[in-house]
Amino acid sequence: MTPAPGPAPALVIDCRGRRCPLPILDLARRIAEVPIGSVAAVDADDAAARYDVPAWARMRSHAYLGETAAPDGTPRYAVRRDH
Questions:
Q1: Which end of the chain is less enclosed by CB atoms within 10 A, N or C?
Q2: For the domain that residue 50 is a member of, what is the CATH number?
Q3: What is the CA radius of gyration of the chain?
Q4: Is 58 helix (H, G, I), strand (E, B) or coil?
Q5: Per-residue pLDDT reduced to its tens digit, 11-60
Q6: Nearest 5°: phi and psi at 35?
Q7: Domain count, the chain
Q8: CA dihedral 27, 30, 32, 38 (to 10 degrees)
Q9: Which residues are within 8 A (CB) of 59 and not within 5 positions of it... i.e. 6 or more apart?
Q10: Model confidence over 5-23: pLDDT tens digits?
Q11: pTM value surpassing 0.85
Q12: Using CA atoms, how far apart are residues 80 and 9, in angstroms rounded to an integer?
């Protein structure tokens, strides 16, 4: 995992224990809670999220900012809401 990509998230979606496609469905449902230009983060321990979050961001024209770790070590995927 790399250092924190950009600003702190305005919203962290806890998807620990949720399997594909639930983390993406949660992100899709909640992205509107984040102001345009702000970051939503998905904390997900499902290995598929590493591929699904960036793909979802591309398909929805948002910016995938990368992967870091939540304080407990769970992978955290950051997406900037662009519209």
A1: C
A2: 3.30.110.40
A3: 11
A4: helix
A5: 999 999 999 999 999 999 999 999 999 999 999 999 999 999 999 999 99
A6: -60, 150
A7: 1
A8: -60
A9: none
A10: 578 999 999 999 999 999 9
A11: yes
A12: 9
